[in-house]
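Reply to dn_fold:

You asked what the input looked like. This is it:
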Amino acid sequence: MIKKIVCGMGVLIFITGYMAMASPAEKSDNAYIIGHGDVLRIFTWKEPDLSVEAATVRLDGKITFPLVNDVQAAGLSTMMLKKVLEDRLAGYVESPIVTVILVHPVSQRYYVLGEVQRIGEYPIEKNLTVMQAFAVAGGFTEWAAKDEIRLIRRVDGKDQIYRINYKGFLKGKNLEGNVRIQADDTIIVP
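and this is what came back:
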């Protein structure tokens, strides 16, 4: 029993120490998470042959990088990918310093369909809420059913449907319906 407690305390100390050493970008909930189709510029200091102008994240979530071949990029922040590349390059380069720049973010998109002025695909450029997404889409048409709006979100392979009552929101009700937009969300305004 004492061994289990000591072991558990050791793990807790390790995790706490790691989190204290992690950069703010790694700890931030707001860090951009790389996804399929994103284009990255990767620069290795003093190693032009180990730099890539445009690495596109493939459908399998990986990029190809000199010397280390395929590297998982999807699901990581740029700071996390930097650390992975530095660790993998360490066997070839003494103290590699890598910079990962998100050049073209295409994976973080949402969709607005139905009775809005501008239906389509939109980039998530900040912490955007459903109500703000309506503004981005130019507002509603005169036929919009503002109390029957749906947000469809895929979670663990299953669709979750959120009911959005815009009329209620304007009256100060249903404020919890103003959820934050996530990648691949679809808002349908009947």
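The CA atoms of residues 125 and 170 lie 25 Å apart.
Hope that clears it up.
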